[in-house]
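Re: [ENG-882] Designed sequences occasionally contain unexpected residues at chain ends

Forwarding the minimal case from QA. Structure tokens:
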């Protein structure tokens, strides 16, 4: 296990141009699987939390839908999950773990998820006040760097997953860019929330590909009245240019595209349909 995300990225300033809250032009809307990729596709099991199923059952459901892996957001019975992973051949690229748990007992977290083959841990959320101004971002950078160093010592990779509030402007640039400049934290870029914040997800993939082994593939309809500037929708029904995002990510060190929907109306149908959707992006030899 390793953590290639240490070290600072040269340069600064906002990545790309804002597309605005009114949404991208027609040219940026995904029009189908025109680009095929060698990337692995997974699903964040948080998307399926409303199903009355064990984690092991969700792993098997993801396998049946054709996903290469699952990203955990908690595990109910690790002893049952390991056989499900082994039986299906599904990988476990990452796990979302609250920063409080990581800081309280990192060894226990590493032991729990290491037994499942997880080598990448993700801080899923920090509150808006952690990015409110330059001092707050710098403090967050120090906090994440400290935790990254401890993960490095244990052979585990640490990433940070963004929402939209990390893109607020701080001293002339998005807070996320300042975080990148002031820390060595790796990223799990949530492409939908970058778009909802008014920025081009592809520009962020390009800029931070060397520290972004995983992206969250989520579609969104832009809505200025929505909580985060957009409403998650099934893949292909929103305004994320999925073709362009996957084509760009496929030419970078990005290893996984993890599908997510925060509030699917029918989680089982979402899992099935999302598996079919990403299958169209596999190369011919993988399909």
């Amino acid at each position: 296990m390793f953590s290639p995300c240490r070290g600072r990225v040269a340069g600064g300033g906002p990545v790309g141009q804002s597309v605005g809250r009114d949404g991208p032009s027609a040219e940026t809307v995904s029009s189908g699987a025109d680009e095929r990729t060698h990337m692995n596709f997974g699903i964040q099991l948080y998307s399926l939390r409303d199903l009355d199923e064990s984690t092991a059952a969700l792993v098997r459901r993801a396998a049946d839908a054709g996903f290469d892996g699952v990203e955990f957001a908690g595990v109910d019975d690790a002893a049952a999950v390991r056989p499900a992973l082994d039986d299906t051949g599904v990988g476990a690229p990452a796990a979302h773990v609250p920063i409080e748990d990581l800081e309280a007992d990192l060894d226990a977290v590493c032991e729990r998820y290491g037994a499942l083959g997880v080598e990448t841990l993700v801080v899923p959320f920090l509150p808006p006040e952690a990015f409110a101004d330059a001092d707050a971002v710098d403090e967050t950078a120090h906090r994440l760097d400290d935790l990254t160093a401890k993960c490095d010592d244990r052979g585990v990779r640490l990433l940070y997953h963004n929402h939209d509030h990390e893109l607020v402007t701080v001293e002339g640039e998005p807070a996320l860019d300042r975080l990148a400049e002031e820390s060595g934290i790796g990223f799990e870029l949530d492409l939908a929330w970058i778009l909802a914040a008014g920025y081009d997800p592809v520009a962020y993939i390009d800029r931070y590909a060397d520290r972004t082994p995983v992206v969250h593939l989520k579609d969104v309809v832009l809505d200025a009245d929505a909580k985060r500037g957009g409403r998650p929708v099934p893949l292909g029904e929103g305004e994320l240019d999925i073709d362009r995002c996957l084509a760009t990510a496929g030419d970078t060190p990005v290893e996984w595209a993890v599908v997510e929907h925060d509030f699917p109306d029918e989680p089982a149908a979402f899992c099935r349909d999302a598996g079919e959707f990403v299958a169209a992006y596999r190369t011919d030899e993988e399909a």
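QA comment: On inspection the terminal residues look reasonable. The two ends are 28 Å apart (CA to CA). Proposing we downgrade this to a documentation issue.
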